Amino acid sequence: MSGAGPGTTVRGRVTAVLPRGLFAVRTAEGELVAGLGREAAHVVRVKPGDVVDVRLSPRDPTRGRIVGLAPRQGSGPAAAGE
């Protein structure tokens, strides 16, 4: 990974749903990362096209854990005109 080292959080877009709770995520640098979307207590519900934050593994920078959804553009009270 060019701009991000292992253990850092990167933003990317979900491109595919893989078996066993994995998601293919393409980062802004064009790298493909396999992101795990489930944990025992917290389940992040994502679908292809969603923008997510992925914390990369310190041992394997091509794998990581989806830590949350990125805020959607145009959502919230400011976008509603309030």
Salient structural properties:
82 residues; 5 strands
Task: Please sum up the structure shown.
This protein has 82 residues and is mostly beta strands. Helix content is 0%, strand content 41%. It has a single domain (9-69), classed as OB fold (Dihydrolipoamide Acetyltransferase, E2P).
CATH class: Mainly Beta
- Largest sheet, order of strands side by side? 1-2-3-5-4
- The radius of gyration is 13 Å
- CATH homologous superfamily classification: Nucleic acid-binding proteins
Envelope shape: globular
At CATH's second level, what is the architecture?
A: Beta Barrel
How would you spell out the order of helices and strands?
Answer: EEEEE
- The number of helical elements comes to 0
CATH topology: OB fold (Dihydrolipoamide Acetyltransferase, E2P)
Rounded mean pLDDT is: 80
Low-confidence stretches: none
- SS strand fraction: 35-45%
Major β-sheet annotation: 5 strands, mixed, barrel
Query: Number of folding domains?
Result: 1
Word description of this protein:
The N and C termini lie far apart (41 Å). The chain has 82 residues and is mainly beta. It has a single domain, classed as Nucleic acid-binding proteins (OB fold (Dihydrolipoamide Acetyltransferase, E2P)), CATH 2.40.50.140. A five-stranded mixed beta barrel has the order 1-2-3-5-4. It contains no helices and five strands. The model has no long low-confidence stretch (mean pLDDT 80).
